[in-house]
Design a protein that fits this description.
mainly beta; nine-stranded mixed sheet; 5 helices; elongated; DUF868_pln
């Protein structure tokens, strides 16, 4: 499966693309991973910046990377573009690493990353929930600020707020489970966190010749409410359906082919794409299928934001 914004290529079976670093990391390490892509001004140009959080039983990790030439790059080709990055590993016995700063250069101009995670609340997830900040500074402006300790961040960086706020383009989450997969994520650029629960089960059904067959089905819940119920999953392992969350229309795509037909550690891909209620949707909307270009809004009423959820099935 590929997770670029060209949706038809997403709905093909197979292993994660070799160029996708988050998929490779999740496959090899079994880490829960969250990666968010923002568009912001860095070194005088509008660029894509990726913030990746990962977690396993021993360590939390934070990685920030910037695509050098983002003027001609969207998520379709950003993987092959030149990147600049810094990484931080947060181990329980390395208290000093929980706050600090690092510098890297983009086209010869300095970019500083400040963080304070001493009191961060993680709640068992890769990304902190509260009591932290991560700030990216370019040209004496805080071009990206994450967390809820804004005052502390501006005081520490000594920089002013950016004239233009960063825009959240996409978010990728990798979760692991056997039959239940839980993720807490936003479903719009500035929306609140929602709990997304995906459950798979097998129901016995009798055939015309009296045999008992297993009939897999799947339920997708948002904030404990059933949003999608797919029966006969072996025939409907790829599809899409519109749901409504807090009066907002969200188009949901799924591909669970590898869960059903591939052995070993496999993953399904779920895509959540917000849309405007002012625009109607159909189960086979070609304009939506080609609209994942990383821009702020699309002509068909869908926003630029998109959530990719990878659910890895353990044996």
């Amino acid at each position: 499966m590929q997770d670029t914004f060209s949706i038809p290529s997403c709905f093909t079976p197979g292993e994660p693309t070799a160029d996708d670093p988050t998929s490779i990391a999740a496959t090899r390490s079994g880490r829960s991973i969250v990666a968010s892509v923002y568009r912001t001004m860095i070194a005088g140009h509008c660029r894509l910046i990726t913030v990746t959080w990962c977690r396993d039983v021993r360590v939390h990790g934070l990685s920030i990377s910037v695509v050098e030439d983002s003027d001609n790059v969207d998520e379709t080709n950003m993987i092959s573009s030149k990147r600049h990055s810094c990484k931080v590993e947060l181990r329980p016995w390395c208290f000093w690493r929980k706050h600090g700063w690092k510098r890297f250069h983009v086209e010869g101009k300095p970019v500083d990353v400040f963080w304070d995670l001493k009191s961060a609340k993680f709640s068992g997830e890769p990304e902190p929930r509260s009591d932290y900040y991560v700030a990216v500074v370019s040209d004496d402006e805080v071009v990206l600020l994450l967390g809820d300790l804004n005052k502390e961040a501006y005081r520490r960086t000594g920089s002013r707020p950016a004239a233009i706020d960063a825009t959240l383009v996409s978010r990728k989450e990798h979760v692991f489970g056997k039959k239940r997969f839980v993720a807490r994520s936003i479903l719009s650029e500035k929306g609140k966190l929602h709990e997304i629960l995906i459950e798979c089960s097998n129901r016995s059904s009798s055939s015309s010749i009296g045999r008992s067959n297993m009939d897999p089905e799947m339920v997708i819940k948002v904030d404990a409410h059933v949003a999608i119920h797919v029966r006969h999953l072996q025939w409907k392992f790829r599809g899409n359906q519109s749901i409504t969350v807090n009066k907002a229309r969200v188009e949901v795509y799924w591909d669970v082919h590898d869960w059903l037909f591939s052995p070993g550690l496999t993953h399904a891909l779920f895509i959540f794409k917000p849309r405007s209620l002012l625009h109607s949707s159909t189960s086979s909307s070609p304009s939506l299928m080609s609209s994942f270009d990383g821009k702020d809004s699309d002509a068909d009423g869908s926003s630029g934001f998109c959530l990719f959820l990878y659910a890895w099935k353990l044996e």
